[in-house]
Amino acid sequence: MTAGSQLHTPDNSSRYGTIDIIGGALADFRNGPPQLMDEIAARITLGLQDPETRDAALSIGDEKDLPSERQLWGYLARRCVPPHTDKAPPLLALLGWVAWRQNDTVTASHAFSDALKFDPNYRLAKLLLMGIRNGSDPAVILALFRIGAQRFADGRADLDSL
């Protein structure tokens, strides 16, 4: 079993709940020194094991939020110590993605490579690392992620109207 595999598939309400918690954590990181309760850190880390939730988190913030996002993903990735290192790849992929959007391809490449050390089959890290190596424009990739994020948000509106 790889870090990207699931023991169960989360329902949409737990996916949206994770995104809401991430939004709150980002607000906390914007407003001062990070102080994330262990329970919140664990909920985010576990929620991001689901690829749909992780993909929604890829475009969660605006450009002005990138420093806070980078701080959050790095903070959470550093907390994935043994025996929980298998939970790090989504966090490292998010950290690398934010660094790349900030034009820091060195940090991004290291984060993607580290994700692949924990899970050599982690497809998102492979694709994003390949994008850096091929000189791809992260803005084009972000536009694609935002389309997926919009579908994710539209699904929430459908769920909320039930």
Model description:
This protein has 162 residues and is mainly alpha-helical. It has a single domain, classed as Serine Threonine Protein Phosphatase 5, Tetratricopeptide repeat (Alpha Horseshoe), CATH 1.25.40. It is built from 8 helices and no strands.
Helix and strand arrangement:
Elements (H helix, E strand, L loop, with lengths): L11 H19 L7 H10 L3 H7 L8 H13 L9 H14 L3 H14 L4 H11 L4 H23 L2
Helix pairs in contact: 1-2, 1-3, 1-4, 3-8, 4-5, 5-6, 5-7, 6-7
Note the main sheet.
none
Tell me the fraction of residues in β-strands, as a range.
under 5%
CATH topology: Serine Threonine Protein Phosphatase 5, Tetratricopeptide repeat
Task: Count the domains.
Answer: 1
Q: Briefly, what CATH class? A: Mainly Alpha
Q: Provide the low-confidence segments as ranges.
A: 1-8
Number of helical stretches of at least 4 residues: 8
What order do the helices and strands follow? Answer: HHHHHHHH
- Described by the principal axes of the CA atoms, the overall outline is globular
End-to-end gap: 36 Å
Return Rg in Å: 15 Å
The total strand number stands at 0
* Mean pLDDT over all positions: 87
Structural class: mainly alpha
Architecture per CATH nomenclature, i.e. the level-2 architecture: Alpha Horseshoe
- Approximate helicity band: 55-70%
Organism: Streptomyces cavernicola
InterPro entries: DUF4192
Protein name: DUF4192 family protein
